[in-house]
């Protein structure tokens, strides 16, 4: 197909259906919402179907009318059974949702389907609606995320691991969130013959002034201390202790002129959040660091001046924006992170980033230009903290901030992500829709497995 004709196909109005398990406020949900809004802004007709969307616990675009969000497939199967079998229930709920779309003929109103996280819907769509073009977005293989801390758990996962690889391979095209995820995916599912494409997630590129009433003496910096900021959920895999132990290696004078602020997602109902926060506070005590915990913005105003480490639990978006504006350095501690949105949020705010030299940050951060990449060694991280806070000349810091913003605008904006997705949908149109007798048989097997499991659960 000629270049001009290909471009015309890619720019023509598309009817795109999104299928997503639970439209909450996680990173995957943020990507789905941004992708849908971006494609809609490019003139396409977008509808999102999900098994769950709590209007009190979702992103603004999902409840204020920006997006057409509809809930289906949530009336038979619960999210879990007595706190267990979450993956089985999630698969069956997506099967229920997909059958609902097929039985109501909703599928016929769309030409393209965007599916992420769960691929259980793909065999059903292939079998009953083979003309629809399917794009599967892989944030990270669930096969590698699931815990296998016992023999029973390992055996329980075997059919689901096989099912994930089989159903994902039935998509027309598969896109992933980073080159790192692409390499991991290829290792996890070597038999999938599709060429994996990379479509980076995006970050909001308009940094609004935070709507927080700030007195003459701003909180967190009212004693002139420079802020080292960490933003992550309170989960052990985030390795937040690296930031604390590295900060403890600064001299006493340097610590008196700085403060480590650890902010992020925290839910008192999640035992890991509670115990990990307690463990981090105890670590501060062992290292001789004064720590304090604030659960809201008001309480952060009265932080003792000698506080070295401040924990901020479940910060709202406005406070997060303010923290990024006041920080001198963002430290991003998790290893082998699939992608990592927080470093981009820091760069668009003009804050240099220190991150673990693995995973997604290798693709988002330019060493020495927009930040630093280091292994998880306290001394190396402490050295970068000293450089960023006390040794970096103002002109160099300003140039680093400018390069960070430029990089985000060039590669990681909503417009850029929507453009790339548009191209991928256009590539599906240009190529052949995979099909034929073998595919139909394989899809039929997948359908039989899904329906059989649903029947067994209801019996």
Automatic annotation (TrEMBL):
<dbReference type="GO" id="GO:0005789">
    <property type="term" value="C:endoplasmic reticulum membrane"/>
</dbReference>
<keyword id="KW-0256">Endoplasmic reticulum</keyword>
<dbReference type="GO" id="GO:0004378">
    <property type="term" value="F:GDP-Man:Man(1)GlcNAc(2)-PP-Dol alpha-1,3-mannosyltransferase activity"/>
</dbReference>
<dbReference type="InterPro" id="IPR028098">
    <property type="entry name" value="Glyco_trans_4-like_N"/>
</dbReference>
<feature type="transmembrane region" description="Helical">
    <location>
        <begin position="434"/>
        <end position="457"/>
    </location>
</feature>
<comment type="pathway">
    <text>Protein modification; protein glycosylation.</text>
</comment>
<dbReference type="Pfam" id="PF13439">
    <property type="entry name" value="Glyco_transf_4"/>
</dbReference>
<keyword id="KW-1133">Transmembrane helix</keyword>
<dbReference type="InterPro" id="IPR027054">
    <property type="entry name" value="ALG2"/>
</dbReference>
<comment type="similarity">
    <text>Belongs to the glycosyltransferase group 1 family.</text>
</comment>
<dbReference type="Pfam" id="PF00534">
    <property type="entry name" value="Glycos_transf_1"/>
</dbReference>
<keyword id="KW-0328">Glycosyltransferase</keyword>
<keyword id="KW-0812">Transmembrane</keyword>
<comment type="function">
    <text>Mannosylates Man(2)GlcNAc(2)-dolichol diphosphate and Man(1)GlcNAc(2)-dolichol diphosphate to form Man(3)GlcNAc(2)-dolichol diphosphate.</text>
</comment>
<feature type="domain" description="Glycosyl transferase family 1">
    <location>
        <begin position="220"/>
        <end position="406"/>
    </location>
</feature>
<feature type="domain" description="Glycosyltransferase subfamily 4-like N-terminal">
    <location>
        <begin position="25"/>
        <end position="203"/>
    </location>
</feature>
<dbReference type="GO" id="GO:0102704">
    <property type="term" value="F:GDP-Man:Man(2)GlcNAc(2)-PP-Dol alpha-1,6-mannosyltransferase activity"/>
</dbReference>
<keyword id="KW-0808">Transferase</keyword>
<protein>
    <recommendedName>
        <fullName>Alpha-1,3/1,6-mannosyltransferase ALG2</fullName>
        <ecNumber>2.4.1.132</ecNumber>
        <ecNumber>2.4.1.257</ecNumber>
    </recommendedName>
</protein>
<dbReference type="InterPro" id="IPR001296">
    <property type="entry name" value="Glyco_trans_1"/>
</dbReference>
<keyword id="KW-0472">Membrane</keyword>
């Amino acid at each position: 197909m000629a270049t001009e004709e290909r471009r015309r196909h890619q720019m023509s109005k598309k009817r795109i259906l999104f299928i997503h398990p639970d439209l909450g406020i996680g990173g995957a949900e943020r990507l789905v919402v941004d992708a849908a809004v971006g494609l809609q802004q490019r003139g396409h007709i977008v509808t999102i179907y999900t098994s769950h969307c709590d209007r009190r616990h979702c992103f603004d675009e999902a409840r204020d009318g920006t997006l057409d969000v509809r809930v289906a497939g949530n009336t038979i199967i619960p999210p879990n059974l007595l706190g267990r079998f979450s993956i089985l229930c999630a698969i069956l709920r997506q099967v229920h949702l997909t059958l609902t779309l097929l039985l109501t003929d909703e599928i016929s109103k769309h030409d393209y389907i965007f599916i992420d996280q769960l691929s259980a819907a793909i065999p059903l769509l292939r079998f009953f609606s083979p003309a629809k073009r399917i794009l599967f977005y892989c944030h990270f293989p669930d096969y590698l995320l699931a815990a296998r801390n016992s023999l029973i758990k390992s055996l329980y996962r075997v059919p689901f691991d096989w099912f994930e690889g089989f159903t994902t391979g039935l998509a027309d095209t598969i896109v992933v969130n980073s080159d790192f995820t692409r390499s991991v995916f290829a290792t996890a599912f070597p038999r999938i013959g599709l060429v994996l494409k990379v479509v980076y997630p995006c970050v909001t590129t308009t940094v609004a002034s935070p709507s927080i009433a700030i007195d003459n003496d701003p909180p967190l910096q009212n004693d002139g201390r420079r802020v080292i900021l960490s933003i992550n959920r309170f989960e052990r895999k985030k390795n937040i202790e690296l930031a604390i132990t590295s900060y403890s290696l600064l001299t006493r004078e340097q610590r008196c002129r700085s403060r480590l602020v650890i902010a992020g997602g925290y839910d008192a109902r999640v035992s890991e959040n509670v115990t990990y926060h307690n463990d981090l506070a105890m670590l501060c005590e062992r290292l001789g660091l004064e720590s304090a915990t604030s659960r809201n913005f008001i309480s952060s105003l009265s932080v003792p001046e000698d506080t070295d480490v401040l924990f901020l639990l479940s910060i709202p978006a406005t406070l997060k924006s303010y923290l990024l504006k006041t920080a001198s350095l963002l430290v991003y501690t998790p290893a082998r992170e699939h992608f990592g949105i927080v470093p981009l949020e820091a760069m668009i705010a003009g804050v240099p980033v220190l991150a673990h030299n693995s995973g997604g940050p290798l693709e988002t951060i330019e060493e020495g230009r927009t930040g630093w990449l280091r292994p998880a060694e306290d001394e190396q991280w402490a050295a970068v903290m000293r450089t960023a806070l006390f040794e970096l000349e103002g002109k160099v810091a300003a140039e680093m901030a400018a390069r960070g913003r430029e990089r985000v605008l060039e590669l990681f904006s909503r417009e850029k992500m929507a453009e790339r997705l548009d191209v991928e949908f256009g590539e599906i149109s240009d190529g052949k829709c995979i099909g034929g007798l073998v595919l139909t048989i394989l899809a039929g097997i997948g359908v039989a497995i899904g329906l059989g499991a649903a029947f067994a659960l209801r019996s």
